[in-house]
Amino acid sequence: EDTKTLAVQVNGKMRGQVEVAAGASQEQVMAAAEAVEKIAAHLSGKQVVKVIHVPDRLLNVVVK
User: Fold this and answer.
1) CA-based angle 64:12:35, to the nearest 5?
2) Measured between alpha carbons, how far is 25 from 18 in angstroms, rounded to an integer?
3) In order along the chain (64 residues), what is the average pLDDT of each group of 10 residues?
4) Which residues of 14-41 are buried (b: 16+ CB within 10 A; e: fewer)?
5) pLDDT of residue 6
6) The predicted structure's pLDDT at residue 24
7) Distance (Å, rounded) from C-alpha 38 to C-alpha 56?
């Protein structure tokens, strides 16, 4: 497969999914997640404390 669908969590809660190229870097996945309106709403105006990226599976963003 050329693309993978990754789950995106904000503070451990599922907020959406993004489709990226297989083996995409953390920066590429984060950029794709910020482009999704539903996910961006949970990130806007908040400080990103930590980003957990499991390649081809999951992106978890911890904000405060």
Assistant:
1) 75
2) 13
3) 94 98 98 97 97 98 98
4) ebbebebeeebeeeebbebbeeeeebee
5) 98
6) 97
7) 21
